[in-house]
Hints:
The structure holds 2 protein chains of 2 kinds.
Chain A: H1 6-16, E1 20-26, E2 31-32, E3 37-44, E4 49-57, E5 76-82, H2 84-90, E6 100-106, E7 113-120, E8 123-127
Parallel strand pairs in A: 1-7
Antiparallel strand pairs in A: 1-2, 3-4, 3-5, 5-6, 7-8
Chain B: H1 3-23, E1 29-35, E2 40-41, E3 46-52, E4 59-66, E5 85-91, H2 93-98, E6 109-115, E7 122-129, E8 132-136
Parallel strand pairs in B: 1-7
Antiparallel strand pairs in B: 1-2, 3-4, 3-5, 5-6, 7-8
Enzyme class (chain B): hydrolase
Family (chain B): Belongs to the transthyretin family. 5-hydroxyisourate hydrolase subfamily.
Protein name (chain B): 5-hydroxyisourate hydrolase
Amino acid sequence: MKSVNSKDLQKMAVAESSPLTTHVLNTSDGVPGAKMALSLHRLDTRLMIWSMISVGTTNEDGYCPGLISREAFIPGMYKLRFETGSYWEGLGKTSFYPYVEIVFTIHNPAERFHLPLLMSSFSYSTCRGN
Amino acid sequence: MSAFRLQQLKSHILFESKIAAMSGSPSPLTTHVLNTALGVPGTNVTLRLYQQDTTTNVWQLITTGTTNDDGRCPGLITQEQFKAGVYKLHFETGQYWASMGQTSFYPYVEIVFTITDPGQKYHVPLLVSRFSYSTYRGS
């Protein structure tokens, strides 16, 4: 059994404390959507442009911990962009969608928000979880 | 003229204008908005279709429309305009829920898709509730 030292525990605590999480699922193959690049953006309402907050890649389980810190998670309009086209290309398949962008509004950043993406190469769905 | 007779005439005229809209060849790209919370079509939803310019990557607005009583929006694009490339359908879903006095997690929904063969028919529906949505490629 692998022993977990205090440094690992610290890393896990930081990673899991993101108030915003996602989970990518490959519904074609019934597996997690692993190694998918994604990015989180917030709309700057003064300049009316998207500014990137973080970039990441999903792990073997289709999760991407550490998307945003509690402090950075202020009310506003956010966008999660998933590089689904590259993902399917990596599996040797074409896809109808070059990428998926989900735009959502956060009014109360004290809540937890879980935004899964269930996708095949010709369909996708998402919902607000917590 | 009686009110009943007026109703009859009105329904004939509406039927004719539906035919007129369909008499040009139908759009090779169609959509359908469904309100999955209530199990009804998403009517009166404003939407816009964009085509990505292949040289500049700028989005060009092709059509603005509103879904009808069936949640559909005929005449999105003509066969001539429908070239291979990247397109985007933008649905004003936030406005739709607001018009019913409700908030929604998503201010709008954008679906970006690639057309490889404009000779085929493409159906891009949107099934939506206040806290979820899904889409798929139909034909």
